[in-house]
Structures are given as C-alpha cells and as structure tokens.
Design goal:
The chain is built from 13 helices and five strands. It is mainly α. Strands 1-5-4 form a three-stranded antiparallel sheet. The chain has a two-stranded antiparallel sheet with strand order 2-3. Helix 1 packs antiparallel against helix 9 (264-298). The longest helix has 35 residues, at 264-298.
C-alpha cells in the first residue's frame, strides 16, 4: 500500500461527467495500471536484485561488478536449446541455457528488461492523450452549463435563475455544438487507434512474441505437465548467459561465461500476460463503443431511447419535442447534461426548453 499510495489521485472522481465508461477505462484505469506496473518492476524491495550472475574465477572482482556488467551489456539465450529436454542427466538444465562456443553458437540477446519500466510509463502517458485532447476541446463548458443544477437542494430563486440561463443558452445555440461533438468523437477514435497501436508497439518491443502471447498461454495450460514449458520463456527467460571479458595476467583477454538468474522476469511475464488480455478486451469494447456512436449519429430514435432511459421522470412527449429539433451535436450536449443534472432539475429543464422552442416555431411561422 505504501508503494502505490501516490497513485490514489487517479481514483478521484470528478463532480462533472463529460465522457462514458469505456472512455474512462482508457485514461483512468489503464493509465493507473500501467503506472503501477512501472513502479512495481523497479521495486527491488519486493523482487530483490533484478539480476544475479555467477561464474568461475571471479574472486578478484568487486562485489556486484559481474551483475552490473551483465545487466548493462545484456544477457543472451541459445535458441537451439529452447526445445531440448530439461532435467538432471538430460540435454539442458533450463531452456536456452547450454554450452556456448563464441562465434559458433547462435544466440539471442535480451536487453528489453532495461526498458520495461520506461515503456510502461510511456504507454500510460499515451493512454491519457485522448483525454487531454478532449479536455482541451471541451474547456470546462459542461461544468459551466450545469450552473449548480446537479444539486437537488437549491433555493427557488437560484433554481429558476440558473435554469433560465441554461434554457437561454440551449435555445440560442442549437446547431452550434458541432465542433464539441466532433472533438469527442475524434477522442473516441484516438482511444481505439491508441490501444491497437499499443499492441503493435509491445509486439515490436518483445521481438514479435506479444501478438500471439495470450493464445499460446491458453494453449500452454492444456499441455501435458511433463512436456509443457512456458511459451514466453523465449522472451522472459529466468535464466540466461553472459560473457564477461577481462585482461589476464599475461595481458591476453580472457572471457568468462556467467550464468545469470533474472528474478525480474517473474514479474515481467505476469505483467505482460495481463496486458495482452486487457488490451484485447479494451480494443473490442472500444470498437463496440464506436459502432454504438455510429448508431446514435444515424438513428434519431436511438438517441431518444438513450436519453429517455436515463431521464425516466422527464415527460417523454416534451423530450421528443426537444430532440426532434436538435442535431446530433445538440443531443450530445443535452445527454451529457442529463448525466450531470439532478433528475428533477433536468425534467424541468426539458419542459421549459420544449416550451421555448415551441414559441420560437410559432413566431417563425407567423413572422418569417
């Protein structure tokens, strides 16, 4: 709890709602999780040293020098040994760990673990970009329009005055909310592009292994226990090798092959298992949200159903009269107000706005 106590600000809820649940999953939940993971992989008090290496003839080295060298210069695995039989008297002691002959043995280097915390933090920032864009476009307009009508307890004078201001604004600005709605729709598209792009980014970062990670994990759970091995052992090995070069007593360069344990990968593999399933789920939910948005744009009846289901005590006849005179951008503002206003105040707002629009229609008919 001490480790993550500074993240509690992410959990604070705003008094004004200007987006939907899917939107908040991006900038609030996902960003929080990514920052928490970034902190976790650097918390040595919980996982110990991220790397521990051992080799023969290292008695003359300062303590920790071999660990630091292998961490900085990256460790490696032997891909020809990934699928060999593991165990005492068998082919290898661990997948990817076998006899190494410099210049002749094929190797795969692992340097990603130096960058995991930075990549996770960068991802958290990128998930907040659509939210930042939408806040810049919205500019606090919804909060100003609420005029305190989100509180169920107001004096009669304050309620009537604030409600009149809001009715005047809505009646005078019908058709002028196109940029506001376009900004929100673009932010939703950014959310989808971002989450899909993040999956490609992680796939590139992990050498093409992330895209099929989740599927292989599900298959891995069904394998025979005596035969199966972790499908991400190639990306997150817990044991690797490292070659350290030092000057010998005769002036020649001597090489020491070290065996390294990577406790950090116990955390990394769990982090990326969660991220694979979460990103796939979030991308599907976001795609459905975009389809839902398209339905609302092209079907006015759907907009009435959505707002009517939220404003249950509002007169449906008055609500339909208002929405019939509204473009989709105007409906968007009214629907956001419905989320924030007290239900009784919203009912009265719709009644007054319907009356105002009807008077305007009559006036335009007789005095074109």
């Amino acid at each position: 709890m001490d480790l993550f106590s500074n993240l509690k600000s992410f959990l604070k809820t705003s008094s004004t709602t200007t987006d939907n649940t899917i939107f908040r999953l991006h900038y609030k939940f996902t960003s929080l999780v990514l920052v928490a993971f970034s902190i976790l992989v650097t918390a040595r008090q919980y996982i110990g040293d991220p790397i521990d290496c051992m080799a023969d003839k290292v008695h003359s080295m300062p303590d920790g020098m071999l660990d630091t060298y292998c961490w900085v210069h990256a460790t490696f695995s032997l891909p020809d040994s990934w699928n060999k039989t593991i165990g005492a008297g068998k082919e290898v002691s661990y997948p990817g760990v076998d006899k190494y002959v410099e210049g002749k043995t094929r190797v795969v280097y692992h340097a990603y673990y130096q960058w995991v915390c930075f990549v996770l933090f960068l991802q958290a920032m990128m998930f907040y970009v659509p939210r930042y864009f939408w806040r810049s476009v919205e500019g606090g307009r919804i909060k100003n329009l609420i005029c305190g009508l989100n509180s169920p307890i107001l004096s009669i004078e304050t309620k009537l005055a604030n409600k009149k201001l809001l009715v005047d604004y809505l009646a005078a600005n019908l058709g002028n909310h196109g940029m506001l709605f376009a900004g929100y729709a673009f932010a939703e598209i950014l959310n989808f592009v971002n989450v899909v792009g993040q999956m490609f980014l992680l796939d590139k970062f992990l050498g093409g292994e992330f895209s099929r990670y989740g599927v292989e994990v599900l298959q891995f759970t069904e394998w025979d226990g005596a035969l199966r091995f972790d499908p991400m052992i190639k990306v997150f090995p817990r044991m690797t090798k490292c070659v350290y070069y030092k000057g010998g007593s005769s002036g020649d360069i001597e090489s020491l092959t070290a065996l390294c344990i990577l406790p950090i990968n116990v955390i990394n593999e769990k982090v990326f298992i969660f991220l694979w399933f979460w990103f796939v789920s979030l991308s599907v939910l976001t795609a459905l949200s975009l389809i839902y948005r398209q339905v609302l744009v092209f079907l006015p009846a759907a907009r009435f159903v959505v707002t009517g289901s939220r404003a249950r005590i509002a007169d449906p006849v008055k609500l339909r009269q208002v929405l019939d005179r509204c473009a989709v951008s105007d409906w968007f503002v009214i629907n956001v107000l419905c989320k924030n206003l007290d239900s009784i105040h919203f009912r009265d707002l719709i009644e007054d706005l319907a009356k105002r629009l009807e008077e305007r229609t009559i006036k335009e008919f007789y005095d074109p």
